[in-house]
Specification:
Layout (H helix, E strand, L loop, with lengths): L6 E7 L12 E6 L5 H9 L17 E6 L3 E5 L10 H17 L3 E9 L6 H12 L4 E6 L6 H16 L8 E3 L8 H14 L1
Length: 199
């Protein structure tokens, strides 16, 4: 498994053009507000406060770059679909997120986070299909599995797969995780490691 020896914050930006100008590979994380993205990033890196967690959804409003093991970037992206944000604010975020995802050649994989406690959500399915239409390489991580019964988890995962198969011939890689129990840490880091070794 990939061992994360060091993880350091590099820069926050509102425009992909202001992101680090080099060809270092990037793995980005995105999801609906309150999906547990910051907690997952902290769990993967074994750092308590690398990504700022908050009880208020929509806290991440910038593209945040962290350098991992001095060799690749972990990118924390703003959550989509935060209802309480003003519409103009939301459009601004959506524009710079989509610009980053479409125009960043060194983005190797986008991890789309989904709350395992919910049945398939329209906004998540729309975002996943948008990624497909724009040829963005992505994987899915279901979060907060410690907060749900295994039978319900299985039902929700089956529901998502069924919905996705309406549009997709082949499903993307799917992971399940818990920031509390660290479930999924090894699988996700091994997946990143495999990608890095293959390029």
């Amino acid at each position: 498994m990939l061992k994360i020896k060091n993880a350091e914050f590099v820069v926050s930006a509102t425009d992909y053009k202001k992101c680090p100008q080099n060809d270092t590979y990037e793995f980005a994380f995105i999801g609906r507000s309150n999906v547990g993205k910051s907690s997952l990033i902290n769990m993967l890196t074994n750092r308590k406060n690398l990504a700022k967690t908050s009880s208020t959804p929509g806290k991440t409003q910038l593209i945040n770059h962290f350098i991992i093991n001095d060799s690749w970037y972990l990118v924390d992206l703003p959550g989509y679909g935060y209802a309480k944000a003003a519409k103009t604010e939301r459009r601004k975020w959506e524009k710079f997120i989509s610009n980053y995802l479409i125009n960043r050649p060194n983005l190797i994989n986008l991890f789309v986070l989904l709350d395992s406690r919910h049945a398939p959500q329209k906004i998540d399915l729309e975002f996943i299909n948008w990624c497909g239409e724009n040829n963005i390489p992505f994987s899915l991580i279901f979060t907060k599995i410690d907060k749900i019964a295994s039978s319900q988890l299985s039902k929700n995962l089956t529901g998502y797969k069924k919905k996705l198969k309406e549009q997709w011939e082949e499903l993307p890689p799917i992971f399940v995780s818990s920031s509390t129990s660290k479930h999924g840490q090894e699988q996700i880091l091994s997946y990143i490691d495999d990608i890095l070794k293959s390029i």
